[in-house]
Amino acid sequence: MTYDPSNIFARILRGEIPCNKVYEDSHALAFSDIRPQAKVHVLVIPKGAYVSAEDFSASASDAEIVGFTRAIARVTAMLGVAGDGYRLIANTGAHGHQEVPHFHVHILGGQPIGKMVTLP
Ligand code: 5GP
Description:
Layout: H1 8-13, E1 21-24, E2 28-32, E3 40-46, H2 53-59, H3 62-79, E4 86-89, E5 105-109
Antiparallel strand pairs: 1-2, 2-3, 3-5, 4-5
The structure holds guanosine-5'-monophosphate.
Guanosine-5'-monophosphate (5GP) binds at residues 8, 17, 19, 31-35, 91, 97-100.
């Protein structure tokens, strides 16, 4: 799948659309999900143009992958969810119900998150 630079997260990265920023460094941006599914619901996105977890894992540089992974740990610490735990989700493609085609992980926490998955 080709990266679409008009996707909503690309527009947030370019500052064209506002977000409730939680954290930013040279590799990653974290912001609150606009439709939170838990007391804490934050999205972490890489700054590079990657469609999905697949694309990021295969094509990002080592520095981007390390930077992004470390950013997630910084954000969970900042949010105060690291101790009690949280769920990290990377919806991928059609079966994964990915809506926004810019790779992102969801951090869900601040309360028990329940069963891992409910199939339709
Ligand atoms: P996906 O299903 O692609 O993993 O999840 C995309 C997430 O992005 C959804 O949870 C949705 O609420 C969130 N989202 C969609 N548009 C916006 C937006 O404009 N701003 C923010 N902050 N979140 C958004």
